[in-house]
Inverse folding.
């Protein structure tokens, strides 16, 4: 469900458990990397890729950045928006809300899980090996 629908539903009832639309883990990883790259001085900017689980034949020429650890995650407005999170407005609380994460990559799933947990979702549903065309 969209943020607006979840807010409307909360106006009607505080007891319903609401699920988000599927959040694509790759989107959260990408948005976080863009934010980190924009903070670097111009000379240090380089493309970041997930570490490959399979051995690469050309490791020396590819630059890579690891996915941030939980303590390093900077929960920006952009990440919050892409997570579909909204804070309480007046007496309307978003709880209980379950976030659905879709991914085909364990590292991206783990990162997205840490991000949405920091947002404050009550539970997280992982759609692993998701067949959706939105999940690459």
């Amino acid at each position: 469900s969209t943020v607006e629908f979840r807010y409307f539903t909360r106006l009607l009832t505080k007891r319903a458990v609401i699920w988000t639309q599927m959040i694509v883990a790759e989107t959260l990883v990408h948005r976080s990397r863009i934010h980190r790259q924009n903070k670097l001085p111009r000379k240090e900017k380089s493309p970041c890729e997930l570490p490959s689980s399979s051995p690469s034949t050309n490791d020396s020429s590819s630059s890579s950045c690891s996915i941030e650890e939980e303590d390093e995650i900077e929960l920006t407005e952009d990440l919050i928006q892409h997570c579909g999170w909204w804070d309480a407005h007046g007496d309307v609380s978003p709880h209980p809300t379950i976030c659905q994460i879709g991914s085909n990559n364990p590292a991206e799933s783990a990162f997205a899980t840490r991000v949405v947990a920091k947002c404050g979702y009550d539970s997280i549903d992982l759609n692993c090996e998701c067949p959706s065309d939105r999940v690459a």
In short: The two ends are 21 Å apart (CA to CA). The first strand starts at residue 18 and ends at 24. The helical segments are 3-12, 25-39, 77-83, 106-119. DSSP finds four helices and three strands in the chain.
